[in-house]
Amino acid sequence: MMDYFVPCILFFTAALALGRRENAYGLLLSGAEEGLKLLLSIVPALMVLLTAVQMLRASGAAELLSQWLGPVFAWFGIPPETALLVLVRPISGSAALAVGAELIAQYGVDSPIGRTAAVMLGSTETTFYTISVYFGAAGIQKTRYTIPAALFADFVGFFAASWSVRLLFPSP
Known about the structure:
Elements: H1 5-19, H2 24-59, H3 61-75, H4 83-88, H5 93-107, H6 112-123, H7 127-138, H8 146-168
Helix pairs in contact: 2-7, 5-6, 6-8
């Protein structure tokens, strides 16, 4: 049944456009053109962010930061092993997914660290990517309070993820 869902939506949309006597193909082309323009405005920011994350990981700076900040995370109840994930997640979702996969492979799926990493990935956002994409698309250049508020929200997500895993899956 689900195999027919997208074709039915396309058929319904085309029938609606024809019923209104609108050029469905022309509307489709103009929508695709707007999408490509948006893509062209987003790609430079995406390339810079992905390059910066890769440079941090390749240089060893990300591991060094995670070693330094591990005790701070431990004080807040966040497993120090997830420090690299906490540092990378606001910047890049794909890099965070790779770090999360490494943590799960190293510690196991049902380990407290593996579960915490999975919940962290699901409860936080790639802050800088999201801000650059949406603000870039809207033409907003001054972020003022957005970045501090979004980073604080990420921290709350990391904190809540670690504590919820502890509460819902207590260690024996």
